[in-house]
Design goal:
Blueprint (H helix, E strand, L loop, with lengths): L9 E5 L4 H12 L3 E6 L8 H8 L4 E5 L5 H13 L6 E4 L14 H29 L2 E6 L12 H21 L4 E8 L8 H5 L1 H10 L12 H8 L10 E4 L7
Parallel strand pairs: 1-2, 1-4, 2-3, 4-5, 5-6, 6-7
Amino acid sequence: MNPFDLTGRLAVVTGARRGIGLAMTDALAAAGADIIAVSAHLEPTGSEVEKRVRGHGRRFSGYQVDLADRDAVVALADRLEHDGRFVDILVNNAGIIKRTPAAHHSDQDWDEVIAVNLSAQFVLSREIGRRMVERGHGKIVFTASLLSFQGGINVPGYTAAKSGLVGLTRALANEWAGHGVNVNAIAPGYIATDNTQALRDDAARNAAILDRIPAGRWGRPDDLAGAVVFLASPASDYVNGAVIPVDGGWLGR
């Protein structure tokens, strides 16, 4: 049997509309998974993510959810339970970033980043993970960051949230590994997405970042494909509480 085959599995991916989430969703569908896509701005029909999933011959449904709204996140989990299919894979990828020096980082920006990047991830993992534990199997994957290990510049809320995700990954793995639920994380490096456009537009920062990356280039969203399929598949059944960097060698420098 192919240990990376996801045929018959159902994957929920948050932040699936673009960037890293879109690439991860595409990879999971290509490996055989049916997809439930979640995004704050997901189009009702005809989205790029829907086209890609259906292009692989997989079933697709999508939900537009504001992950900063705790009630909406709980309602999503309840709706998934009542849709009649068990969730086999949860990819907690959605995230936002607010770039402001710490001395001027507003409470509003802090609260929104923590709500989307950390609190919503826990709530979905708790609600969906509880059902995985009851069934005795499941895969949960978080999108962490290089800033889970480093402080970053001008992104205190983002760094705090992404650092928290690594702790949450390990905490849930400790509790759920014995129940057949694998909880792990991927830590992307500097990936060319909308979230990093400001850095790429700054000539000095762009040059400094590229100089630090042994691979000599910015990452692409599809560079995350192999890692997410691995962590979502039977190939990772004895991997628990791991954080896998996909960073072109940045952390090893």
